[in-house]
Amino acid sequence: MEKITKEILFSRDAIQKRVRELASQISIDYAGRELVVIGILKGAFIFMADLVREISIPCKVDFARLASYGTGSESSGKVVMTKDIETSIKSRDILIVEDIVDSGLTLQYLVAWLKERDPHSLKICVFLDKRKRRKVSFEADYVGFTIDDGFVVGYGLDFNEQYRFFPDVYVIRQ
Ligand code: IMP
Ligand code: MG
Questions:
Q1: Rounded to 5 degrees, what angle do the CA atoms 149, 136, 113 make?
Q2: Rounded Cα–Cα distance for residues 64 and 81 (Å)
Q3: pLDDT tens over the chain, length 174 residues
Q4: Ligand 1 within 6 A of 171 CB?
Q5: Is 148 a catalytic residue?
Q6: Does residue 113's CB lie within 6 angstroms of at least one atom of ligand 1?
Q7: Cys-Cys link to 54, which of 23, 71, 74, 82 (CB 3.0-4.6 A)?
Q8: Distance between CA atoms of 68 and 72, rounded to whole angstroms?
Q9: Is 2 helix (H, G, I), strand (E, B) or coil?
């Protein structure tokens, strides 16, 4: 394990409260409909698990895996899909769930990929939004928390595959 210092940013209680708020908003917005929730692996797995358990409308789940093959805290900027979804999304209501939007490149790529399949609607829910770091213009429809620059871990988010299991979210410094 590399030596890092970490400072708590969002406690598990604050996260749980915010996830409940997001889920109730989503349940209102999609009342009477059925959602296909698509999580982006690996980072979104914990957020998505919490979110779908708080949503009160029926939903199906699926996963895509996208990588931007960088190491540490900088992505390469080149996005590749390493696992596609397995559900037919034509004419369905789609909610993409992602851990964090930074440059916006990963979500821009996935949105373009999924729109090709002609869903009825497509919205995006991100746990964290690093608004100031966009390289492409991109707005999520549901945002857990907006954060400044800085690298965060925990609640699914990793640094070199470490720390995903932390129940709280931390900012780290090497
Ligand atoms: P984007 O394509 O630049 O928007 O990057 C999104 C991806 O980069 C996310 O799905 C994360 O996997 C990763 N990422 C960006 N910022 C952080 C961070 O602060 N902590 C952990 N992962 C991050
Ligand atoms: Mg990710």
A1: 120
A2: 8
A3: 667 899 999 999 999 999 999 999 999 999 999 999 999 999 999 999 999 999 999 999 999 999 886 666 666 778 999 999 999 999 999 999 999 999 999 999 999 999 999 999 999 999 999 998 899 998 999 999 999 989 999 999 999 999 999 999 999 997
A4: no
A5: no
A6: no
A7: 23
A8: 12
A9: coil
Strand spans (E) along the chain: 5-10, 35-41, 59-67, 80-83, 93-101, 121-129, 142-146, 151-153, 169-173
| Dihedral over Cα of 95, 106, 40, 101: its sign | negative
Rg of the chain over Cα atoms, rounded to whole angstroms, equals 16
Q: Best substitution site from 6, 79, 102 to test ligand 1's pocket, by max atoms within 8 Å of Cβ? A: 102
Burial class (CB in 10 A: 0-12, 13-18, 19+), 112: exposed
Residue 30 backbone phi and psi in degrees, to 5: -110, 20
**Residue reference for tokens 């590399």:** 2
